[in-house]
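Subject line: Sequence and fold of a protein, written as structure tokens
Body of memo: The sequence and its backbone structure tokens, given next.
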Amino acid sequence: MIRIILIGYMGAGKTTVGKELAKQLGVPFYDLDWYIETRMRKKVKEIFDERGEEGFRTIERNMLHEVAEFEDVVIACGGGTPCFFDNMDYINGQGDVVYLRGKPEVLFRHLKMGKGVRPLLLGKTDEELISYITDTLKTREEYYLRARHVIDIPFMKDDDQVRLTIDKVKEELNIIS
């Protein structure tokens, strides 16, 4: 059975790497935020606006417990998922947890390159954004580093860099495909 759970800061490439890794392994891919949006029939931002962070984190925890029971799957968690409740202990007990660790500059470049609208980016200068990433990463890293596997990610500017990162994950997990 394959159950790979990717964690890391926003912009670490969890969805990009996860989707392609799942495709290579021939298993389904679940992005936890997308799963929540599908099940709740609302965008994450709407849930945050309606229920606040505490309400969202409770829903997120419940949905995490659903998807982390699936077999033969690759899951990408939201950036904050490991930092609440007992989520980190739980996912460590469910499968191979991989922390995609990026330097603040790499995360910043990924976020600037991304196509989706992220509320975090709105109204912040580049300097403010790098500072925010650096500060929040410091508080979250204690949770992220509890993953059994840590992969340092490069700036994934193209498919070759994404493939290189996937190869590192597969090597770390001793996956031959």
Notes: The first strand starts at residue 3 and ends at 7. The CA atoms of residues 71 and 111 lie 31 Å apart. The mean pLDDT is 94.
